[in-house]
Amino acid sequence: MSDARLRIDIVCVVPQVLTSVISTSIVGRACEKGHVDIVLHNLHDYATDRYRHIDDTPYGGGAGMIIQCEPVFACIEALKNERTYDEVIYLCPDGEVLTQSTCNTLSLSTNLILLCGHYKGIDQRIRDVLVTREISIGDYVVTGGEIAAGVLTDAIVRLIPGVVSDAESVLEDSFMHGLLDAPMYTKPALFREMPVPDVLLSGNHAHIRAWRQEQSLAKTTQRRPDLLIKDGDE
Q1: Which CATH superfamily is domain 172-228 in?
Q2: What pTM did the predictor assign?
Q3: Of 124, 185, 191, 219, which has the most beta carbons under 10 Å away?
């Protein structure tokens, strides 16, 4: 039995969308090293009819299909019978917008369920009874919640201690301190008459930190001034 600090169960309609996300790059290595267990659950396996239907037309009419209560309740209740979950998160366009702060908090969890929306959505009774948190990855719509679950999973897993070898790199990512990251440069120092800023070549780490803070604040002010607005500010 795995002793991973975090387990993520992803309940979805099209698990194939997520197989590459959880088996490659940082997330794949985190699974291999035992930092996290990620388990995919196909809702069609919990269907009650011979054709494995999990959706039906909406009451009251309208376009699209709605994921039914039965398969979702069956899957999540089976999981909750095995362990206690910190959150049951529904990925949907009308949830709270995902932030780095949210990822930081969720990375401290022990067990998470991610429920992927699909088609036109899920029966509201699922949201009322089973879901503890609803998250959106932005103000747009993608084909299914599997894509959003992949984004959230990656954002959480890379924060687990030991997953990224250069921990300092993670701590200095954009949004970690409420600001966008400063410009970055590497060798050569001069490329097509475009030089690297002198301060970065100076070796004076205090000056470099001050320059990066200044650049970070300037970029945030220009591109994302909303990040500088504190609670209570107008």
Answers
A1: tRNA(m1g37)methyltransferase, domain 2 (1.10.1270.20)
A2: 0.85
A3: 219
